[in-house]
Specification:
The chain is an alpha/beta fold. It has one domain: Vaccinia Virus protein VP39 (Rossmann fold, 3-Layer(aba) Sandwich). Helix content is 20%, strand content 27%.
Length: 176
Amino acid sequence: MRRKAITQFRNVTKAYNVILANTADMGGQAQVVYKGAKHPDISNIKNPLPPLFKSYTTFNIDHKPDVHQDLTKPLENKYHNRYDLVISFDTIEHVKQPFLFCKSMEQAAKPNGLIYLSTVFAWPYHGRKDYFRFTADGLQSCFEELPVECLASGWDGDGSYLKKQTGVFFFGRKHE
C-alpha cells in the first residue's frame, strides 16, 4: 500500500467526518497497517489509518482473510447491505473483472454507506495478475451504473500533470 493512498484516505475521511464503524476491506490490503503487519512502503508511518475501526472484516483469497471471498465472483448474499464503510486499497488492478468488484463493494455497503477505493496509476507491474491501471474518470465509470453517488474522486498526488501521479481514488455514498 502506498503512503499517498493512506494520506488521501485520512484526508477524505476527516473531511467527511467519517465514523469508521463497521468496516469491510475488499482485498485485505489495509490489514497491513490496521493489524500491525510490517510493510516496506509504510512501516515508518505513525498511525497510518484512523484509530481504529469499531469492527473490521477482510474479504480476499489471500492475506489470511476473515472471509474467504473470490473477488471476481458475486458477493454472497449474507454480506449484502451490512457495512457502514467499504474500503479497498491497491487491489482492483489485480482483479480480472473490475466492474464486478465495484458491484461487490456497493452490495456490501449499507444504504447511505460509504465506499472508498484507491488504486495505482503510474506504478510498475507488480505481483501476480496485475491487469489494469485506472484514471479518476475510469474509477468513476466503474460505479456509474450502480446506486452510488460520487462524493470525491481524483489523484493521490497534487494533480499536476508534470508531477508523477502514483494513484487515484474514488469516494462515494450508496443511495438509500
